[in-house]
Amino acid sequence: MDLGIRGKTALVCAASKGLGKGCALALAREGVNLVITARGADALEATAAELRKAYGAKVVAVAGDITTPEGRAAALKACPSPDILVNNAGGPPPGDFRDWDRDAWVKAVEANMITPILMIRAVVDGMIARKFGRVVNITSGAVKAPIPELGLSNGARTGLTGFIAGVSRTTVRHNVTINNLLPGPFETDRLRSNLEFHAKKTGKTAAELRKVRTDANPSGRFGTIEEFGDACAYLCSAQAGFITGQNLLMDGGAYPGTF
What is the pTM of this model? Predict the structure, then answer.
């Protein structure tokens, strides 16, 4: 299916690997011009080269930390008027809330709530003026089913979810939609680091814990960044103009609720 976004421009944050890269891959395949950001310049350039080779995509790589004012300024200088914005930033580390001081909480909220809000604020009026805009925020399945050791992420990302629920209803009449993608267990460095965290706590190996988790998931596996990217691309499509303010959970069926 032609998603109707060929020739559009997307700004994809934290796109050098993991879920952000999955989104960049899917958008490049659809003929979208890309500006991609990430902290690691080498990995970012490698991803840009991969996208150009695979799809002939126009890709601009901007190294920087999107959670800082300088990183946001650099990204927006390279892409001041995107048609598509994919907000993404690495989640805060796992741990015990008793060990987190105020600075830890401020850092988490800055990265996973305030940063995407500021990025939306910077580009949404241009989208409204052009009568087309798609914003996808990569959050976490933890906003529906909180994970105790990810309390920093639970709090910050749930705050973003509440904000999006309101603002998304004010932009959709201009064909500007804002939605959230909620990943469960995907094959990413983040998942692997969490397995290592639990391995140290339990005395089991990361491989043993991986098997326990995949066996417990209704799908019997972890997700791939490619299928995550495909979902992102659809939410960015011309056909998705009647979808806004939604939280699409991608977890292989792990969340047991009806709603």
Answer: 0.94
> Which of 130-169 are b and which e, b meaning 16 or more Cβ less than 10 Å from the residue's Cβ?
eebbbbbbbbbbbbbbeeebbbbbbbbbbbbbebbeebbe
81, 9 Cβ separation under 8 angstroms: yes
Per-residue pLDDT of the chain (259 residues; tens, 9 = 90+): 899 999 999 999 999 999 999 999 999 999 999 999 999 999 999 999 999 999 999 999 999 999 999 999 999 999 999 999 999 998 898 899 999 999 999 999 999 999 999 999 999 999 999 999 999 999 999 999 998 989 999 999 999 999 999 999 999 999 999 999 999 999 888 778 778 877 787 888 888 888 888 989 999 999 999 999 999 999 999 999 999 999 999 999 999 999 8
Half-sphere exposure (Cβ direction) of 117: Cα atoms closer than 13 Å: 18
